[in-house]
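ok so heres the complex, two chains, lmk if somethin looks off
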Amino acid sequence: MTLGSSNGAVADAAPLSAQESDPRVMGWMEGFPPPKDKIITQPDSVYFSFPKLRWSVCHLREFLPTEEISRGLGAPVPLAYPPPYEFGDLRDAIDALTFTPLGAHAPMSWEQSLYANYTDGVLILHKGRVIYERYFGCLQPDGKHAAMSMTKSLTGLLAEILVVEGKLDDAAPVSAIVPEVRDSAFGSATVRQVMDMTTGLRYSEDYADPNADIWTYSAAASPLPKPAGYAGPDGYWEYLQQVKPEGRHGDAFHYRTVNSDMLGWIISRVSGKSVTALASERLWRPMGAEQDAYMTVDGKGTPYAGGGLSAGLRDLGRLGLLMLNEGVIDGKRLFPAEVVKKIRAGGDPAKFGESYPALVGGRYSSMWWLYPGDEGVIAARGVHGQTIYVDPSAEMVLVRFASFPKAQNPLIDPTSLPAFRAVSQYLKSR
Amino acid sequence: MTLGSSNGAVADAAPLSAQESDPRVMGWMEGFPPPKDKIITQPDSVYFSFPKLRWSVCHLREFLPTEEISRGLGAPVPLAYPPPYEFGDLRDAIDALTFTPLGAHAPMSWEQSLYANYTDGVLILHKGRVIYERYFGCLQPDGKHAAMSMTKSLTGLLAEILVVEGKLDDAAPVSAIVPEVRDSAFGSATVRQVMDMTTGLRYSEDYADPNADIWTYSAAASPLPKPAGYAGPDGYWEYLQQVKPEGRHGDAFHYRTVNSDMLGWIISRVSGKSVTALASERLWRPMGAEQDAYMTVDGKGTPYAGGGLSAGLRDLGRLGLLMLNEGVIDGKRLFPAEVVKKIRAGGDPAKFGESYPALVGGRYSSMWWLYPGDEGVIAARGVHGQTIYVDPSAEMVLVRFASFPKAQNPLIDPTSLPAFRAVSQYLKSR
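and the predicted structre for the whole thing:
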């Protein structure tokens, strides 16, 4: 493989394996200075194309302005672990688990799946204890990783907390809360339709299509100075004001990032706080986080509520525990149980559609994914393989950071979802 | 005062007082979104001009790419405090101290000086305990503030640690360590001349002169994409390779930021670590820091060793304690006492010159300021009023963050240095 072939434009041809594309193997950004062909720089079409993205997912703040989600100044509350000998046995047992990837015939081991999925970090909590934890590629226990669209679930959780506390009326039209979007497609949607992404918007989010609206949106959102002659919207919130309608609100689930940014605006407007400040106050500080997290911001300092979060693996484990235990962590209640119960009860499988082959029959509720099946799995998902996977049937929380070469999660679901179920089965059988 | 008069270009006319220019009074960045005339954005000529800079000094990461200086994942080691009633009495006593500003006749109280100096945060440690701590403007205990050129002292301390440990030969020519600068003015300088800023370089750092080299340097250093047709050096280290000589190395102290970036390159080259990684490993992690710090980076990810640090007030107090106690904090030795002894013994008052009226007879050594006088004060200084002031004669460490309207510290020294001495005298008299 030559370096030329690592260019995003030709990445299709022969993607490097997880081991080959390990940032330490590639030598990205090593040396003072690194060799010219090992330096990763702007623009995002460079730094966020495979295999460079395998380094960049741990280093977004080095490319972009960001806002902190503070953990505060106190001591973190360490996660619980089994004794080391037991931890080692559990790791061996889980690594050896096998499953059949969706649409495949040959079995795959859990450990093989970690490489198939370009895993950067994986953490499994069972009955409140960390029973499995491994790091790969650019990630370390004290590092942060891009959460991508898992950010949406953070935004959705904060919104649902405000709903349950009576501070946000989810039946209200968005225009009653944010009059600035009165003339956009959002104006006539309800807050709940935004939370569940059943708005009728003209918005294409096909990451593989270079003309998709998502890229226009990115131009509005870029914190870099706008190019000369740029006449488009400046910042996330100006973009939202000119989104056009398409279809009817409430008819169907359409996965569109702009809903999350609309929700970010809504919760900031009703709480008087930025999404970062809310996340710090309601979650990062009280949950005993061991690292600050951060969110990228647009040129006006607005955090990217649809995808800007970077955080530590264990801290997203804490977030998963809060979902599993309905607001309680370390014996402390952070928000009413009703918040998670409402999220679980929401969404509509009839509206969910078939865009996600592995999830047909599931639901999308308050920006969380409710998986089909009896286990009652609730998940956060982000492109390139990010997930928080909460399986109450096994009292399990699984967090995975990854840098899968392609963005689309349906490509990584086949080697992921059955692997997660294999772990869940194993834990239930112990 | 109209908002128009707060523009940097006319700030001379009638600078707002500390109270008037308090970011909360100005309403910068308040609201979702803030009103148009309250939004602070790029470029730095906007966000870093008074009075906007009073907000921006606490929010640099929201404008610029940054690299973390990690505190690690453990519990911070809290600073020691006297009992609250004693703390309150101490605060009253210190607030009431009076002194005569340099060149003035009328006395000023310590508390008045806080406003005269546009103080954002001030921390005083005496015999290892925090006896005074106040926050103003944009700063909070859990916030971070731009350290500006105090960054240089961090870089110098790390370099001196490597010298004492035998990993860096301070007598070696720079070209022996970083051959890339062989043809620049740095090539023929010794490491020690760089550390003490006695290099002979053509470099103007007059912040008031729009044609000064510092601004060209800023263009090289900017992480934003270069303007079309830009043909200058890209990044800190490319800039260093084309610095021209002027005068003779070793003859005189000339305060030039590029020396610090050269030193950053040197210590990265010999240690194999970025300045941020070194600062984390040698200082932030072992000193029990309560916050991560960060440094801004250029377009190639090189931390700005000459001015890029932002940190918490108390964490710079910890750094001051390490200087006071020659490498020991909380009973733990982080580096040999020889490091501070060497810094204290270095520099040459004959070379120091008279550019700093309040400091004539002082020295500059390993990027620390050694003040004239019997107290043996050693200090870090940064534009707009940043200082770590270590007075061993009073077992005192004082850290001040500020956002004085003008950059130049000689303008703020008259209401600062005699104020610091008044506190020192008071503490010695107790």
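quick notes: Chain A touches chain B through 44 residues (CB under 8 Å). thats all i got rn
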